[in-house]
Amino acid sequence: MAKTRAASTSRFARLRRIRARLSTRDQPFDGWLLFAALALVLTGWVMVTSASTEVAASLTGNPWYFSQRHALFVVMALVAAVAALRTPLAWWRANGPLLLLVSIVLLLLVLLIGREVNGSRRWLSIPLLPFNLQISEMAKLCLIVYLAGYLERFLPEVRRRWGAFLRPLMVMGVVAVLLIFEPDYGAVVVMTSCVMGMLLMAGAPWGRFVFILIAVGLLGFYVAISEPYRLARLTSFSDPWADQFASGYQLTQALIAFGRGHWLGMGLGNSVQKLFYLPEAHTDFVFAVLAEELGLFGAIGVVGLFALLIWRALAVGRRAELAGMAFAAYASYGIAMVIGAQAFINIAVSTGMLPTKGLTLPLLSYGGSSLLVSSAMVGLLLRVDIDTRRALRRASPTAPRETAGRREPRTTGQGVMK
């Protein structure tokens, strides 16, 4: 009996040592958050290169065309992340309404002079920018910043009164109408989920969400069946093999890619489905190519990186909330929900869990707008984390201080505080 207790105590002690070694509590920022984001960005560059060589050679004569452009996007995304990291939270808080107004004006502008691709008018050509800016991506960040500031100012009213609860949903309704006119139904789903999630995290009563979810569900169903191409996606989703060369073509080709991948994959660069079988192989369906080349273990690894990123983002928000930094907390929650919802929808579409929808995989798919905005979100998360840790150290009487390049514990008249 004593040996059993000793062995159990030894195991728990070993687990505590491992947990302490992996903890980032005493670090200036959350290293796991940064690791997950950088790993996804680098994995995305590798997979975009692998998935796009044949298409690039056919379209431009240069097999590395999309890879080179994506490398430029990665550099620009890192600059955007650093810029967001160095921007004080006070600036974001003060300019939230202005950012929202700018995004709404740009959503109106894109309907008038935006570039149309495959029947959708979602992009604006900006001088000196090497890609067309997708306004809906920028609007996600602007909406998060605005709503975080709103919740900080009116949190008690949001929890008690219907009017304060509905105002953010009315703002979301204006944005949703503009997005539907583009049309960009996927962005509507992601942003609506984010707003509802932020209100839920703010402590709004559960009963209100039941009513709102029913109303949003009915509206979403009407929007989904109001256009023939959306209805075709829904019917092909239920049985893609019934019309595998028309409405079910993308999903069937993606499922073939998953089937070919098996456990360990065909090997990096050996995908067959990217050879003009799977449309948008380096953008919307890059996860299917990844699963074909890297197999089940590679796909699970990417899902694990997204899970790690979202978990650490929520942890950043929770620390900020406990520190009394409401704006920082709700901004972190919103970023976690946008990235999580968009990653889930993209992966679910690729695997046949949801109807086909054109949404990129954050930090991983080819596309300058998505990569820039997602990276800026990660930079804002890191800024929140750094400011929160500084605030907690200043508030703690046992916070370590730096002396001659090393940390020393603060002491009191009664000795060292542990």
Automatic annotation (TrEMBL):
The gene is ftsW. Its EC number is 2.4.99.28. This is Probable peptidoglycan glycosyltransferase FtsW. Keywords: Cell cycle, Cell division, Cell inner membrane, Cell membrane, Cell shape, Cell wall biogenesis/degradation, Glycosyltransferase, Membrane, Peptidoglycan synthesis, Transferase, Transmembrane, Transmembrane helix. Pathway: Cell wall biogenesis; peptidoglycan biosynthesis. Pfam families: FTSW_RODA_SPOVE. The chain crosses the membrane at residues 66-85, 97-114, 134-152, 164-181, 187-204, 209-225, 285-310, 322-345, 365-384. It is an enzyme of class 2 (transferase). InterPro entries: Cell_cycle_FtsW-rel_CS, FtsW, FtsW/RodA. It catalyses: [GlcNAc-(1->4)-Mur2Ac(oyl-L-Ala-gamma-D-Glu-L-Lys-D-Ala-D-Ala)](n)-di-trans,octa-cis-undecaprenyl diphosphate + beta-D-GlcNAc-(1->4)-Mur2Ac(oyl-L-Ala-gamma-D-Glu-L-Lys-D-Ala-D-Ala)-di-trans,octa-cis-undecaprenyl diphosphate = [GlcNAc-(1->4)-Mur2Ac(oyl-L-Ala-gamma-D-Glu-L-Lys-D-Ala-D-Ala)](n+1)-di-trans,octa-cis-undecaprenyl diphosphate + di-trans,octa-cis-undecaprenyl diphosphate + H(+). Belongs to the SEDS family. FtsW subfamily. It comes from Halomonas sulfidivorans. It is a multi-pass membrane protein. Residues 393-418 are annotated as: Disordered. It comes from the Bacteria. It is found in: Cell inner membrane; Cell membrane. Peptidoglycan polymerase that is essential for cell division.
